[in-house]
Amino acid sequence: VVFSWPVISSTAHPEDFQITLNTGEVVFAQFAGMIPNFEYNERNCVVLFGELCNRLPSTDPNTRFPVRMEIVDDGTPLMLVGPGGQVVSAVGLSWETSVSPYDENQGPRLVGAKLNYVGDFPPGEGQAGSNFGGPMFPNDEFALYGGGDFRLRMLTSGGFSPDGIRRVQPTDFEKHFRIHALGANGETVLIDRVGVDFAVAGGTLRVVGLADVGPRQDSYDECYDEDRDNYIDIILEGDDAAARNITFLEIPSLAGGYAPFYNPGGPGTSPTPGVRYSAAGPPDMEPVIMALDDPMRVSYDATRYEQ
User: Which residue of 169, 185, 189, 233 pairs with 220 in a disulfide if CB–CB is 3.0 to 4.6 A?
Assistant: First the structure.
C-alpha cells in the first residue's frame, strides 16, 4: 500500500487496513509492516500479508481479489508525516479497483517519479535497525558509481522483477526505461541509452545507471540479488538547465523491443502450463516532479509526536 506521505511505522497495524473482496467479504490484513522497505527514505510503503487473492483473472467465476481498501480507526490511527514535520491521520483514505492483478496488463506500474540533486551524501539510504537484507546494502549511487549529479527516483505499485524471479540489475536501464525531455525547439528527446550524452534544452544529460537495487559488482548475472522493494533510482549526470527539462519517465513494457516488469515471486515468463503467477505491467508514463529547488523531503522526530 503506497502513500503520498511517509508513514510513521510505529502506528502501522493490521487492523488499520480494512479490505473488501470482490465476493463482498470484508477482511483485515494478518500482518502489516514496513518490510521490505528497510530504509528511512522508503517509508511511503506498508506491506500487507494475508490470504487476499487467488491467481485467477477477474473474469473467472471463482476469482477472489480486493476491490476496496480503506484506512480505518483501530483506536491507534495510522499516521503520516508531511512537510514541516506535520503529522496527520490516514483514517478515511481509500482505494478501489475492479480488476485482478492477474488480469492482462495489470502487473506493477509507476505511481511516482521525482528528480533531486544527488548532493554530497544519500539521505536516508541504508538499512535502518535491522540486519535482515544486509547483503543488499550499500546500493546507493555513491556505492555503485561514486556519485552523480541527479537522482530520478521512481515509486512503484509493487516490487519490480523482469520475469517474476530475476532481480533488477544496475545495468538494466536500457531494457526497461526511457526518459522524456524537451529539446531545444520544444521537441521530445528520448533518453534511452546509458553513457551517452543527449542534447536537450539547456545542455546535455547522460544516464549513469540504476541505483537502490543491489550492491556493486564487477559483473552481473542471474544470481544477482537486490533489495526487492518498490523504489528504484536512475542516476544522471549533466547540466542543471537540462535536468529541468525532464518531463516524463516511461516504461514502454512490451512495446518497441523493451521488456516489461512483473511482481516478484515467480514463476517467470515461461511458467508451468496452467500455472499463473502474474501478468506483465502495462506501458506506463509518469510525470516527473521537479524537486531541484524544493527537495520535497521530510524528517521526523519521534520525540515530538504525541498520539
Answer: 169
